[in-house]
Design goal:
This protein is an alpha+beta fold and 266 residues long. Helix content is 35%, strand content 25%. α1 packs antiparallel against α2 and α5 runs parallel beside α6.
């Protein structure tokens, strides 16, 4: 998997997220917002961006499958080459006019991300990665931070849209990290959280209830920037497991220990 992929794979991911960013900016002043759940929002831009992406992939790679937030169906066939796409990661922020959101695309081969692109249109920041080749921000190489203890670390996390159903467990774990870290943030975009870990802006990230489109691209960014990704217990990472710890590697076991300790007290 370390072999260089055909250049059109990464080029397509980049083209898609930059187009998505232009659509997000253009639509920000006249949003049509609907509810998918009690606090789970979707805008017309989410849907329009995903339609754009699906048309692009269907034209260029008709034998590839797509796993994306708005129109994927449970049990849908996944080809060996599967594009994983989030049209707007940070929809709640976007719907409220908070400029912390992005679009994220990755291509997975046999469920392993091999190329990825994340674009934040409000900051004009394009994060890219290719397995075995590195990660970049606007063309400059990315490296994770050097923090080696939680007390010296800036961490970030997120809460699921189902947080109201069982807030106590999430808040208890949040408190555990808050007691041990320099500070903990909550930005509202898992893909940007991961890109920021790759860029050394955060030292670590954890979240327990995610979909593949929330983390596939960002996880590759962290790996290619020299960081570590695992599931919530510290075991091997998969984009289909629904949970992730991502870090600079130096604090990874400390983060996993916090999650495991909380699980043992249940």
């Amino acid at each position: 998997m370390a072999d260089t992929q055909p250049p059109e794979f990464l080029a397509t991911a980049i083209e898609a997220v930059i187009k998505a960013g232009a659509m997000q900016l253009a639509g920000a002043d006249h949003l049509h917002v609907e509810k998918k759940g009690t606090i789970d929002l979707v805008t017309q831009i989410d849907k329009d961006v995903e339609r754009m992406f699906r048309a692009l992939i269907a034209e260029r790679f008709p034998d590839h499958s797509i796993l994306a937030e708005e129109f994927s169906v449970d049990g849908e066939r996944e080809a060996r080459h599967c594009w994983v796409f989030d049209p707007v990661d940070g929809t709640t922020n976007y719907a409220h006019g908070l400029p912390i959101y992005c679009s994220a695309a990755s291509l997975e081969i046999d469920r392993q991300p091999v190329v990825a692109a994340i674009y934040d249109p409000t900051r004009r920041e394009l994060f890219t990665a290719e397995r075995g080749q590195g990660a970049w921000l606007n063309g400059a190489p990315l490296r994770v931070s050097q923090a080696d203890s939680l007390i010296d670390s800036l961490l970030v996390t997120g809460f699921p849209y189902t947080v109201h159903k069982n807030p106590d467990a999430l808040l208890e774990l949040f408190g555990d990290f808050l007691k041990r870290a320099r500070a903990v943030r909550r930005l509202g975009s898992a893909q940007l959280d991961l890109a920021y870990v790759a860029a050394g802006r955060f030292d670590g990230f954890w979240e327990l209830h995610l979909q593949p489109w929330d983390m596939s691209a960002g996880a590759l960014m962290v790996q290619e920037a020299g960081g570590t990704t695992t599931d919530a217990t510290g075991s091997a990472f998969s984009t289909r497991q629904g949970a992730i710890i991502a870090s600079n590697g130096r604090i990874h076991e400390q983060m996993a220990d916090v999650v495991r300790s909380r699980n043992r007290t249940k």
